[in-house]
Amino acid sequence: MRLMPLLIVLLLAGCGFHLRGAVELPPDKRVVALQGIGLDHPFARDLAMFLALVEGRLTGDPSQAGSVVVIHGIDQRRRVVSLDEHGKAIEFELIYKVRFEARTADGKPLLPLQTITLRRIYLNTQLQAIGKAEEESLIREEMRREAARTLLRRLQRALEHAD
């Protein structure tokens, strides 16, 4: 019975299973330069975290990197979707957009300028205002992380086709 968990782990490792969001960048491309936002920006910290999972890292210096990601803009919005019978907003849509492009360290285009757009709708009945503010914050954080994973997956595919 004690060997069962070990057996499951070995089977999963043998079949090529990867954690969701894990990006397999080529070893010589695991250092990614980021331009357009600072390395202390929350989106940059998420990129750095996902790169660290595959023994990569984020830098601000393109001369140290295998690829360069240029962020042209990050936009977060909140829009009212529905109102209650008293005209108060009860349903909101959160929108998170990242505009970026990517190129090799020597300047060859990898990904043209493109946008990642994520949308989430949540209900806010105003009955638990503090809890709903926290919920909105968590949804925004999850959207930012999903955008970072999506950017890295697109970069991964572009690097696979570039070689």
Automatic annotation (TrEMBL):
PROSITE patterns for the chain: PROKAR_LIPOPROTEIN
Keyword terms: Cell outer membrane, Lipoprotein, Membrane, Palmitate, Signal
Subcellular location: Cell outer membrane
Entry-linked Pfam families: LptE
Membrane topology: Lipid-anchor
Source superkingdom: Bacteria
One GO location term (cellular component): cell outer membrane
Listed GO MF terms: lipopolysaccharide binding
Signal peptide start and end residues: none
GO biological process: Gram-negative-bacterium-type cell outer membrane assembly; lipopolysaccharide transport
Family: Belongs to the LptE lipoprotein family.
Main function: Together with LptD, is involved in the assembly of lipopolysaccharide (LPS) at the surface of the outer membrane. Required for the proper assembly of LptD. Binds LPS and may serve as the LPS recognition site at the outer membrane.
PANTHER family: LPS-ASSEMBLY LIPOPROTEIN LPTE (PTHR38098)
Subunit details: Component of the lipopolysaccharide transport and assembly complex. Interacts with LptD.
Record protein name field: LPS-assembly lipoprotein LptE
Source organism of this protein record: Methylomarinovum tepidoasis
